[in-house]
Amino acid sequence: MAKTRWLQLLAILGVGGLLLVFLRPSPIDVEVGLVASGPFFEAVEAQGRTRAINPYRVAAPIAGRLLRTELDEGDRVSSGQVLARIAPTPQDQRSLAFAQANLIAAQARFAAADAALEETRSASARVARELERREELFRNKLASTEETELYRQIATAEQARMRSAEANLRAAEADIDSARSFLLGVNPDDGSEGESIIEIMAPVSGTVYKVFEESERVIPAGAPLFEISNQDGLEVIADLLTQDAIKIQAGDSVYITGWGGDQTINAVVKYIEPEAFTKISALGVEEQRVNVIAELLDPPENLGAEYRIEVAIVTWQAAEVLTIPSSAIFQRSNGWNTFVVSDGKVETRPLLIGSRGRELSRVVGGVSEGERVILYPSDLINEGAVVNY
């Protein structure tokens, strides 16, 4: 009898053990991340593009038959290099008068560009003197930081306008040379022909970004022929909402990604354009936006003009901040939460979140450094669930 009881007891224990094994919930496989301290920055993110700094557009100085060019987009050219050749139409009094008027117009454009340059130089010098005075007031604590930064930005913008005016003056000078070349050897009394072929020269050294006319054909005067970079200089332009742009100042760091390479390109904000514009969003909403211009610090050789990029403009940063992966936080009625893994089980933890970034978020309270949190939690995850990681 005793032996029978022992056998029954063992059978009951065996069945109970099997039931525990089969009824025990299976662990859920999850991916975890760590709450850690490290560098963190807040940034305004947007899409942008690269563009050539002060590109030159070369146009036909006269009407005539454009001979086929051998240049392709991407070719490098040197200042003074022959870009194209134009066979002028036979000279008559009308075409001669047109050429002379074209030269007069080019000289007028040069005079206007020279006057504009003189004006920008004067304005830049005045802004520089005012900035120097503001800097002195700031050092003596008689001017605010915001006012001083504003004048620094204005000074940077004035310098950019002066460089643009200098480029316009050089372009106008090249237009005069082109217009004069058509009149070389022409007798103004009888309109007899001078040189049979007019050569179009490169105004600067750089890269050919665009070839407007590839085939041989008759073109009018002023027809665009080429667009050439100015020594291959590139800058970044990104249009931001005005409420985001107000947080940005000249000199802020910019990180550029999404251009096609693995490298993060460094840049710095040069200036913010003083005037905003209205843009219709994809949802049909009117938005006030403004262009932010940044200078590339270490551009890769294979980055060209008009490339699409993604920019992150840093507005605040710290060397040591408690952070949590952004993919580990979610919102409920009580605010931000995360799932913490402790001894293989899930614990729901409310959080105090500072600012959020694409990969990391600054956490003010709720978790401690070194704790493991579940990344991309699914609907299967809940309080007390058993997990594997």
On the 0 to 100 scale, the average pLDDT is 83
Looking at how many chains there are and whether they match, the oligomeric state comes to single chain
Q: Sheet bearing the most strands, described?
A: 6 strands, antiparallel, barrel
Helical amount: 25-40%
What would you report as the Rg, rounded to the nearest angstrom? 34 Å
Query: Strand percentage, roughly?
Result: 35-45%
End-to-end Cα distance, whole Å, is 50 Å
- Principal-axis shape equals elongated
Helix and strand sequence: HEEEEEEEHHEEEEEHEEEEEEEEEEEE
> Ranges with pLDDT <50 over ≥5 residues?
187-195
Indicate the structural class.
alpha+beta
Task: Work out the helix count.
Answer: 4
Give the helix/strand layout.
Elements: H1 2-23, E1 28-29, E2 31-34, E3 36-52, E4 56-59, E5 64-66, E6 76-77, E7 82-88, H2 93-139, H3 145-183, E8 198-201, E9 206-211, E10 217-219, E11 224-228, E12 234-241, H4 242-245, E13 253-257, E14 265-272, E15 277-280, E16 286-296, E17 308-325, E18 329-332, E19 335-342, E20 345-350, E21 352-356, E22 360-365, E23 372-375, E24 387-388
Parallel strand pairs: 1-24
Antiparallel strand pairs: 2-23, 3-12, 3-17, 4-11, 5-7, 5-10, 6-9, 7-8, 9-11, 12-16, 13-14, 13-17, 14-16, 15-16, 17-22, 18-19, 19-20, 19-23, 21-22
What does this structure look like?
The protein has helices spanning 2-23, 93-139, 145-183, 242-245; strands spanning 28-29, 31-34, 36-52, 56-59, 64-66, 76-77, 82-88, 198-201, 206-211, 217-219, 224-228, 234-241, 253-257, 265-272, 277-280, 286-296, 308-325, 329-332, 335-342, 345-350, 352-356, 360-365, 372-375, 387-388. It has 389 residues and is an alpha+beta fold. Among the domains are: 28-40 and 319-388, conserved putative lor/sdh protein from methanococcus maripaludis s2 fold; 91-191. A 6-stranded antiparallel β-barrel has the order 3-12-16-14-13-17. Strands 2, 18, 19, 20 and 23 form a 5-stranded antiparallel sheet that branches. A hairpin with a 3-residue loop joins strand 21 and strand 22 (360-365). Helix 2 (93-139) packs antiparallel against helix 3 (145-183). It starts with a helix and ends with a strand. 25% of the residues are buried.
